[in-house]
Specification:
FAD/NAD(P)-binding domain, Rossmann fold, binds NADP nicotinamide-adenine-dinucleotide phosphate
Length: 452
C-alpha cells in the first residue's frame, strides 16, 4: 500500500490523484487530497467566472474523481501553517504532491498603486467567486462610471466581461448575493481593457475575446488606428492561429461604436506609468505611455502620454506562485524547482516530495493543460514507489491530524456545504448560491470547531 497526500484540490491536484489511483503498475495507492479551504475544486470553483457555466461544469468530473473510494477529501487543512508542517506531512504519507497553484497577483510597480479604487483582478475575481478570504473586499461600483482593466490575458477578459454584464445575466449564476447586489447597482458605463503590446501579441484566446462582442446591451470597440500600428495587421500570415483569429475578431469591432448602455473599448500599445489620484486619495485616471513595436515582439516607449479616466482600476497582469514554508522556491520563476515533478532541494530530488500545476510550471495554460502536467508528476512518483513504500507509517493519518488538534472537513462536510448553498439559493429565489465567508462555510460543513 502506498499512501499519498495531494495538497490542493484544484484541477492539477485532482488529476494527480486520479492518475495515481487509476494506474495499474503500482497496486494499492490511496490518496488524501488536502485543501486549505473546506470546499474542493480550487480555481474551478474560485477562479472560473460564474457566467462560464460550461467550464464550471468541470466540477462534475472532478467530483467523480474525489468520490473514488481510494481517494479522500480533507478540507480546512493548511499545510505549511503553524499546525501542519511539510515535514509532519512526510511523516504521515509515503509521498506528498504539492498542487498549490499561484495564489498571488503580480503588481505593476508604478506610482499610485495604493490609491483607493485600484485593485488586483485576482481580488475582484475572488470576491465575485465567493472566495472566503475575499469576504471583506469592497468595490465602489455605484460611484464608478469608467473602469480600466490593465492587461490582455483571459483574466482581463473575464473581469471586463463581468463589469459589463447586467444583473439579469448574473442572477442565474451561483455568485454570492452581496456581489450580485453590488454589480446590479454598478454605475459602470465604460470599461477600457488596455494592453501594453499589440493586438497580435495579446494573451487572450479567441473564444473568450469573441464573447465580449456578444454581451447584451454592450458595444465593443477598437480604435482602427491602434490595430494598424501592429505590423501583423497587414500581413498576419506568420502569426500563430490564435493571434490570427484574434485579429479577425478585432477587425470587426473597428467601426464606430453604436450607443448602448455600456461600452467595452480594447486599447493597444499603451503601457501604464502612473495611477493618478484626487485629493481624497481615490484614483481618477491611469496615465499611459504610448508604445511602438520594436519589431522583435516587444515595444519601446514613445514619450507620448495619454490619461484614461477611471474610478476603478483592475490590474490583471498575471498570477504569481507564493513560497510554501518548508518547500524550496525559486523567486526568479515563482515556482518550486523540480525535475519531471520531483521537488529539487539543492539540485537533488527530495525523497517523497513532488509538484504539479501552476506551482510547478507557472501560471499558464487552460484547465486541460494540468492533465499532462499532473500525469508527468504522477509517473515520476510511481517510478519511485518501490523505494517510497518501504517506509512504515502510522495507521491512519486522519487520526494523527485530529490528535494534533486539526479539524478536517471531510467529503460529507463538503456535501453539507453544497446542500446549504442550494437552500440559500432557494431562499433567495435563485439557483444554488455560494456561501462567501469562513464562518458560513464551516457552520454549513457541520464543523463544531472552526480552528483550521
Ligand atoms: P496572462 O495570460 O499571462 O496575461 C497577463 C497580461 O498582463 C498580458 O497581457 C501581459 O502583457 C500583461 N502584463 C504583464 N505585466 C504587465 C505590466 N507590467 N504592464 C502592463 N501589462 C502587463 O495572465 P492571466 O490573464 O492572469 O491568465 C493566467 C492563465 O489563466 C492563462 O493561462 C489564462 O489563459 C488562464 N485563464 C484562462 C481562462 C479561460 O480559459 N477562460 C480564464 C482565465 C484565465 P505582455 O504579454 O505584454 O507581457
Amino acid at each position: 500500500m502506498l499512501r499519498v497526500a495531494v495538497v490542493g484540490s484544484g484541477p492539477s491536484g485532482v488529476y494527480a490523484a486520479q492518475t495515481l489511483v487509476q494506474q495499474r503498475e503500482v497496486p494499492g495507492v490511496h490518496v488524501d487530497v488536502l485543501d486549505r479551504l473546506p470546499a474542493p475544486y480550487g480555481l474551478v470553483r474560485y477562479g472560473v467566472a460564474p457566467d462560464h457555466e460550461k467550464i464550471k461544469s468541470l466540477q462534475n468530473n472532478l467530483r467523480t474523481v474525489l468520490e473514488d473510494t481510494r481517494i479522500r477529501f480533507l478540507g480546512n487543512l493548511e499545510v505549511g501553517g503553524p499546525n501542519l508542517s511539510t515535514t509532519r506531512l512526510l511523516d504521515l504519507y509515503h509521498a506528498v504532491v504539492y498542487c498549490v497553484g499561484a495564489a498571488r497577483d503580480r503588481t505593476l510597480g508604478i506610482p499610485g498603486e495604493d490609491l483607493a479604487g485600484v485593485h488586483s483582478a485576482t481580488a475582484f475575481v475572488a470576491w465575485y467567486s465567493g472566495h472566503p478570504d475575499a469576504a471583506a473586499e469592497t468595490f465602489d461600483l455605484p460611484n464608478t462610471t469608467s473602469a480600466v482593466v490593465i492587461g490582455a490575458g483571459n483574466v482581463a477578459v473575464d473581469v471586463t466581461r463581468m463589469l459589463a454584464r447586467g444583473e439579469p445575466e448574473l442572477a442565474p449564476t451561483d455568485m454570492p448575493h452581496p456581489a450580485l447586489g453590488a454589480l446590479a447597482d454598478s454605475g459602470v458605463r465604460s470599461v477600457s481593457m488596455v494592453a501594453r503590446r499589440g493586438p497580435s501579441q495579446a494573451k487572450f484566446t479567441t473564444k473568450e475575446l469573441r464573447e465580449l462582442g456578444t454581451l447584451p446591451h454592450v458595444a465593443t470597440h477598437v480604435d482602427p488606428a491602434e490595430l494598424t500600428l501592429d505590423p501583423a495587421f497587414t500581413d498576419d500570415s506568420a502569426l500563430p492561429a490564435v493571434a490570427r483569429r484574434n485579429l479577425d475578431v478585432l477587425r470587426t469591432w473597428a467601426s464606430a461604436a453604436p450607443t448602448t448602455d455600456r461600452t467595452i473599448t480594447l486599447r493597444f500599445y499603451l503601457r501604464p506609468v502612473e495611477l493618478l489620484g484626487g485629493p481624497d486619495g481615490h484614483v481618477t485616471a491611469v496615465r499611459f505611455e504610448r508604445t511602438a513595436p520594436d519589431h522583435h515582439g516587444g515595444v519601446v516607449g514613445t514619450g507620448v502620454h495619454e490619461d484614461i479616466e477611471a474610478q476603478l482600476v483592475l490590474r490583471s497582469v498575471g498570477y504569481q506562485g507564493v513560497p510554501l514554508p518548508g518547500l524550496p522556491f525559486d523567486p526568479a520563476t515563482a515556482t518550486v524547482p523540480h525535475a519531471a515533478g520531483r521537488v529539487l532541494r539543492d539540485g537533488r530530488a527530495s525523497v517523497g516530495e513532488y509538484v504539479a500545476g501552476w506551482i510547478k510550471r507557472g501560471p499558464t495554460g487552460v484547465i486541460g493543460t494540468n492533465r499532462p502536467c499532473a500525469k508527468e508528476t504522477a509517473s515520476s512518483l510511481l517510478q519511485d514507489a518501490p523505494a517510497l513504500a518501504r517506509r512504515n507509517l502510522p495507521d491512519d493519518p486522519l487520526d494523527a491530524l485530529r490528535s494534533a488538534g486539526l479539524h478536517p472537513v471531510e467529503w460529507p462536510g463538503w456535501l453539507a456545504i453544497e446542500t446549504a448553498e442550494a437552500a440559500l439559493g432557494r431562499s433567495l429565489g435563485r439557483r444554488s448560491v455560494k456561501i462567501p465567508d469562513w464562518p458560513g462555510l464551516l457552520t454549513a460543513s457541520g464543523a463544531t470547531d472552526h480552528t483550521p
